[in-house]
Specification:
Number of domains: 2
Shape: globular
Strand content: over 45%
CATH architecture of the largest domain: Beta Barrel
């Protein structure tokens, strides 16, 4: 109740501040202002970048597509305007004679799919379920060593914590294999979704853009997208370039674990060809908490990427190769200083994307191919009395994956626009080590989907689609699972579908509604685990009788945008049959001393809401308020609460941004969580204070600082898996990043 009262008071003070502030006066002789819009629809383009070529000053459009440059002398300038998915333009302006600029960009047919590939295969900005995107500047301001930490605090998104490295996003209370993480639109081929100790195998410094779709997305992506999709875009394969050299240098430092990281990227473009390459190095020690260091949470990785692009007329293609060598500790045996557990992971990835524009029924064809080789060793080290170290390979995973997708977008037929999609995925998983967790497995799926959008009139749009997927899994013996009679191959023919409605009565208001049938097939670890999983700190027991999860998810959102206010409210209900949960039994496995966790099945109901609003008090001063809530429980029996459901959260922020520099505080208020599953401990609420600041130095150079947990609060997070949340979360942390784009 105390946390709730604090939340209400903070919101009231913020809204009172909105009424008491007057718009600041602007000297039009010094301030250049404008907006960036879609040419076809007139909708704003948030995140568009605007660069003054003569001074190399740059800025990004806000949520309303607006931008401004302060303290700009009168004169003639050339603006370079870019946005992902739109054709870049250059514009000559006379300042201040040209006044307020209204800049319109045309969608680039080669790249429109990349803009909203996560939610629509036809390149339209109309939404039917909540989605958001972070551009490069936003990623810099949220700099962190893992994807989960970057997205934590976004509407409806929290993070599963088990040290810094394996932090992974949780969307609306769903995580693991229910949240699909993509790289440039394709499955990554790693094992980050299968256990809490497994990390996403892409360094955040390599990301240029991240898109998040909240809610079921199995129509386009199949299994593992029952809770949502996170799509990470990197520039290892050039798909848009200017002639000549370009690149970036960046460095990232954090105090909470004495971490340092650096990025170097270079690109050379010609008329038809481009080549690029990058290298990243990151090293950090154990995490500090208000009560001391959290042992075995260090990180070290080196990653690389390189690629080439080719374009000629209506054809564009590219090829990239990337790799990551990652070693990180896990806080599993923190009470024993002579024992530690770490994961040594290596991934090599080859990806190709080819696009062809055609003047026929199918106007665009895009083919994606990806090959991934993933190796993952979980090592237990013990320090002997004489100082020597014994290492044991507890579990090893080796997975090779081939995936491909073909998109055929047809030309508009009356009111219909749509696409046909085909996809396949094949993987081979080999499991070894002294305590191999599961048998080996080979699996593949073949799928096809049809997606159509129907423009009923200028206000109403409808989407509908269906997907049919056939999947087979062949279970094989290995050194510890030797009896083939204990296993059974699986084959599934699965249907997914969705229907949605978008209503846009005017430029200020937009509403969307979607009903989707989604599915998820159980993983090999959920079916056949029967061994200690030392790195995760549990003894895992699977259930070979588990059936496929099927869900009916309903989403409703309402948006309002004006020159001063942006607000969005999202409501959702997700009914999941055969929901697979991973719950503590309250027992301890004697030989290993680890708590026993079992995979089980129940029918579940998850529902909740997200609300966010941003208010521009003046052209420089903005504030934001956000809430998110999810409730998860069983639908049958005692209707127990589901495990690891995040509490009600409130986010408050304020930002003063002159165009050259920005600064502002933020608050996160988490309520206590006492709606817990059997044998799960509740957690108390907490309040965290943070601060963001930065400076755009010009010539492509920017510097940002973010302070987390400013007051050094000692708190426990409900999604932490560190010793059943008995250890506090990280202490005060100062993140700093310096970046130079040239």
């Amino acid at each position: 109740m105390k946390i709730f009262n604090t939340t209400i008071m903070a919101v009231v003070l913020l809204l009172l501040g909105a009424g008491s502030l007057e718009a600041g006066t602007i000297n039009t002789n010094e301030t250049l202002k404008g907006e960036v819009l879609e040419a076809a629809t007139g909708e704003p383009i948030p995140g568009a970048t605007i660069i003054i070529q003569e001074t190399e000053r740059g800025t990004a459009a806000d949520a309303d597509g607006r931008f401004q440059f302060d303290s700009l002398p009168q004169g003639s300038y050339t603006l370079s305007i870019r946005a992902v998915g739109f054709t870049a333009i250059s514009l000559s302006v006379d300042h201040p004679e040209d006044g307020f600029l209204s800049i319109k960009l045309q969608q680039d047919i080669f790249r429109a799919d990349d803009v909203i590939v996560t939610s629509s295969p036809i390149g339209r900005s109309i939404q039917y379920q909540p989605a958001q995107a972070l551009n490069r500047e936003a990623l810099q301001q949220k700099a962190a060593p893992s994807l989960g930490e970057i997205l934590d605090g976004s509407p409806g998104v929290s993070t599963r914590s088990f040290g810094s490295a394996p932090s992974r996003p949780v969307i609306r209370g769903l995580d693991g294999d229910r949240v699909l993480v993509l790289q440039n639109g394709e499955r990554m081929g790693d094992l980050s979704g299968t256990a809490v100790d497994h990390a996403v195998s892409l360094d955040p410094l390599s990301m240029d853009r991240v898109e998040v779709v909240r809610g079921p997305a199995s129509l386009l992506y199949g299994s593992s997208a029952i809770g949502g999709v996170v799509n990470m875009f990197s520039n290892d394969m050039p798909r848009d370039w200017d002639k000549g050299p370009s690149g970036s240098l960046a460095t990232h430092a954090a105090t909470v674990n004495d971490m340092g990281a650096g990025l170097a990227r270079f690109q050379q473009g010609w008329d038809s060809f481009a080549v690029t390459g990058r290298v990243i190095y990151r090293d950090g020690g154990d995490i500090r908490t208000p009560e001391g260091r959290l042992p075995d949470t260090s990180v070290n990785n080196v990653s690389f990427g390189s690629g080439l692009g080719y374009r000629s007329g209506n054809f564009e293609t590219g090829l990239s190769v990337s790799g990551m060598d990652y070693t990180y500790g896990l806080p599993e045996a923190i009470d024993d200083p002579n024992e530690n557990v770490e994961i040594r992971m290596n991934r090599t990835n080859l990806q190709s994307i080819s696009t062809l524009k055609m003047d026929r029924f199918f106007e665009l064809a895009e083919l994606r191919i990806q090959l991934s080789d993933y190796v993952h060793d979980e090592i237990e080290s013990e320090i002997n009395p004489d100082g020597s170290v014994d290492e044991d390979l507890e579990i090893s995973f080796n997975q090779q994956t081939v995936s491909s997708s073909l998109l055929l977008r047809h030309r508009p037929i009356g009111r219909f626009e749509g696409a046909l999609g085909l996809s396949m995925n094949y993987s081979q998983l080999t499991v070894g080590g002294d305590e191999a967790l599961t048998p080996d497995a080979d699996s593949y799926f073949l799928a096809g989907y049809l997606y159509e959008e129907i423009r009923l009139n200028s206000r109403f749009n409808v989407k509908t689609g269906a997907r049919l997927e056939f999947k087979e899994t062949f279970v094989k013996t290995n050194e510890l699972f030797t009896d083939p009679g204990e296993f059974e191959d699986r084959s599934d023919l699965i249907f997914a579908g969705a229907i949605g409605l978008n209503y846009t009565p005017n430029r200020n208001w937009e509403a969307g509604f979607q009903v989707a049938r989604a599915f998820r097939t159980p993983g090999i670890e959920e079916l056949y685990s029967n061994a200690p999983h030392l790195a995760a700190g549990s003894f895992d027991i699977g259930d070979p009788t588990l059936d496929n999860e099927t869900s009916i998810g309903t989403d409703l959102f309402l948006k309002y945008r004006s020159n001063r206010i942006y607000s969005e409210l999202s409501l959702y209900v997700n009914r999941i049959n055969n929901f697979i949960n991973f719950s503590p039994t309250g027992e301890i496995h004697g030989p290993s001393g680890l708590p026993v966790f079992e995979y089980g099945s129940t029918d579940a109901l998850l529902y909740g809401f997200e609300f966010q609003t941003d208010i521009a008090f003046t052209d420089q001063l903005r504030a934001g308020v956000g809430f998110d809530y999810v409730r998860g429980r069983e639908r049958t029996g005692d209707q127990n609460d589901l495990p690891f459901i995040p509490p009600f959260r409130t986010h408050l922020s304020m930002m003063y941004d002159t165009g050259d520099w920005w600064a502002g505080p933020r608050l996160r208020i988490a309520n206590s969580q006492d709606r817990v599953a059997p044998n799960e401990d509740p957690t108390d609420g907490y309040l965290l204070v943070g601060m963001d600041a930065g400076y755009r130095l010009g010539h492509g150079v920017s510097f940002s600082v973010r302070v987390d947990n400013l007051l050094n609060e000692s708190y426990r997070d409900h999604l932490s898996r560190v010793e059943d949340r008995n250890n506090p979360m990280p202490a005060r942390n100062i993140n700093a990043m310096l970046r130079w784009e040239f």
